Each structure stands twice: as structure tokens, then as C-alpha cells.
Amino acid sequence: MRFVLDGAERQALAGDTVLSAILSVAPALRHSEFGTETRAGFCLMGACQDCWVWQEEGPRIRACSTPLTEGMRLLTDAPGDWP
């Protein structure tokens, strides 16, 4: 499956979650909003809120519990207009 991560086209396997797709092509999921550390998910079941990522258009999503869909356009940092 093809998806776009921070403007770069990437590939993943059918059945991947957003988290597993991103971690298969990047060293971390996102940066912490509270420091310089990188994050890679924590609980892996949608409870801890450590795996939020943003869609280029639409709401932010929990990467660990969201299935990847063909053509998803994802951001590892909050878009400029995000509160």
C-alpha cells in the first residue's frame, strides 16, 4: 500500500496499522510536544495517547489503532493551523 509521510511517498503492507507502517520506514513515530525526545507509541492499544499523528486533512488519529488505508497523507508534526 502507498501512503505519504511528511510529504514523501512510502510503502507498507496491507493490514498494517498507521503505527507499524510509519515505524517500518522511520526511526520514530513523532517528536514529543514536551521536549526533544522522539516517541514510538507506548501501550499499543489506544489508551495512552502517545501515538497521535496528524492527517494532512482531517482529524488527528491514534496510529496504533488506526488501519492504514491506501493513499493516506500523514504528518508526524502538528500542522501549523492545529491548536
From TrEMBL:
Gene3D superfamilies for the chain: 2Fe-2S iron-sulphur cluster binding domain, sarcosine oxidase, alpha subunit, N-terminal domain (3.10.20.440)
Pfam families attached to this UniProt entry: Fer2_4 (PF13510)
Record carries keyword Oxidoreductase: yes
SUPFAM superfamilies per the UniProt record, alphabetical: 2Fe-2S ferredoxin-like (SSF54292)
Keywords: Oxidoreductase
InterPro entries: 2Fe-2S-bd_N, 2Fe-2S_ferredoxin-like_sf
GO MF entries: iron-sulfur cluster binding; oxidoreductase activity
Listed name of the protein: (2Fe-2S)-binding protein
Organism the protein comes from: Bosea spartocytisi
Upper classification of the organism: Bacteria, Pseudomonadati, Pseudomonadota, Alphaproteobacteria, Hyphomicrobiales
